[in-house]
Amino acid sequence: MELEDHHHLVPNVFLFVERVCYPGWNIQKSKISFHDLTFVVEGKAQYVVNGVKYNVEAGDLIYVPGGSIREAHTCKKTPMHAYPFNFFWAEPHNHIQLPFDVITKKVITKEILGYIREFNQVWMNKEPFYMIQARALFELILHRLLSNNRRQTMALVDLRIKKLTAFLSDHYSDDITMNELARQFNLHPVYLGKLFKLNTGSTFKEYLNRIRINNAERLLSGSGLTVREVAERCGFEDLSYFSKVFKELKGYPPSIIKKC
């Protein structure tokens, strides 16, 4: 399941520093339970994550998910200057990983750096309710990283899948099958299914259900339609199945919206 499906993720940052390394700086080898998201702004270092060596430099993002074995040392000639965020996802979601490699090259933009420096001021001043503001700024940083990552990923998507997903956005309420789509695109259904999963990270059914449920949520909160009427308009003939899928994706039943 994609990260965007986890609407209840709440990051709790417990450690943040402006890390200006001295020549002998290092992190001793240990297994971490938290997530380490580090932005390198100057210098160089070498990280070893789960036995694999990574060389990092200014502009790079380091992501070490919880459960990893991590160690590191700075380059003595050009010590690293970085901003690490160590955080947990609020339970029971700490196992969820961000969709980044251990090292993402040249990811730090002026906008992200501005958020980081603002976070640093809030974290250092510790004025009343600073944790709320700090969490909001960290979520802005995550949002920008994820948005940029998604745009880069979509740029690499197969043109046939782009056309297919555009078709689904317009015809999500229709009775659509993979066999019918395969005929439209002159592809074998099995091959199209694999191509779809490779490019979107979801199966055809998962993707279609997500579009249908997102539109159902909009209709439930902004129209006078009943739950059954919304289900039918969004392509679900079986009301119980609609309610089941809705709760799985949103975390609450569709009837909750109608009661609000």
Short description:
With 260 residues, the chain is α+β, with helices and mostly antiparallel strands. It has 9 helices and 10 strands.
Description:
The chain is α+β, with helices and mostly antiparallel strands and 260 residues long. It folds into two domains: 3-154, Jelly Rolls (Sandwich), CATH 2.60.120.280; 159-259, Homeodomain-like (Arc Repressor Mutant, subunit A, Orthogonal Bundle), CATH 1.10.10. Helices cover 45% and strands 21% of the residues. The chain contains nine helices and ten strands. The strands form two sheets. Strands 1, 2, 4, 7, 9 and 10 form a six-stranded antiparallel beta sheet that branches. It has a four-stranded antiparallel beta sheet with strand order 3-8-5-6, with no helix packed on it. Helix 1 runs antiparallel to helix 2 and helix 6 (204-222) packs across helix 8.
